[in-house]
């Protein structure tokens, strides 16, 4: 429960200072021909978590981001991008 509270607080703070994390998960899943459920099973989360990540409604933990990148065999910065003030 504490972890969820921390993530909520982090998401709120990031919105307040206008920082966002975008990602290429949907694009990469299509390239690998994986469903949301396929990727979710590989990284140990629910399909809903993958959907929220793709929509930008959820900021992944460092561990989840790294596990996703391992599945795609890509570096973190190739999958996730930090945006500040509307810029990349």
Architecture overview:
The radius of gyration is 13 Å and the shape is globular. The termini are far apart. It has a single domain, classed as 434 Repressor (Amino-terminal Domain) (Orthogonal Bundle). A two-stranded antiparallel sheet has the order 1-2. The chain is mainly alpha-helical.
Low-confidence stretches: none
CATH superfamily: lambda repressor-like DNA-binding domains
What is the terminal-to-terminal distance?
Answer: 32 Å
CATH class: Mainly Alpha
The residue fraction in helices comes out at: 55-70%
User: Could you give the order of the helices and strands?
Assistant: HEHHHHHE
By secondary-structure content and strand pairing, the structural class works out as: mainly alpha
Largest sheet: 2 strands, antiparallel
What would CATH call the architecture?
A: Orthogonal Bundle
Looking at CATH, which topology would you report?
Answer: 434 Repressor (Amino-terminal Domain)
What's the helix count? 6
Shape: globular
Q: Tell me the β content.
A: 5-15%
Itemize the secondary structure elements and their pairings.
Elements (H helix, E strand, L loop, with lengths): L1 H15 L2 E5 L1 H8 L3 H8 L3 H9 L6 H11 L3 H4 E5 L4
Antiparallel strand pairs: 1-2
Helix pairs in contact: 3-4
Give structural attributes.
single chain; 88 residues; mainly alpha; 434 Repressor (Amino-terminal Domain); two-stranded antiparallel sheet; globular
Short description:
With 88 residues, the chain is mainly α. It has helices spanning 2-16, 25-32, 36-43, 47-55, 62-72, 76-79, and strands spanning 19-23, 80-84. The model has no long low-confidence stretch (mean pLDDT 86).
């Amino acid at each position: 429960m504490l972890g969820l509270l921390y993530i909520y607080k982090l998401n709120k703070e990031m919105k307040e200072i206008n920082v966002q994390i975008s990602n290429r998960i949907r694009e990469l899943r299509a390239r690998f021909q994986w469903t949301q459920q396929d990727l979710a099973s590989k990284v140990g989360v629910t399909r809903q978590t993958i959907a929220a990540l793709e929509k930008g409604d959820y900021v992944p933990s460092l561990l989840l981001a790294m596990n996703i990148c391992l599945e795609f065999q890509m570096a973190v910065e190739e999958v996730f991008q930090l945006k500040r003030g509307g810029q990349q």
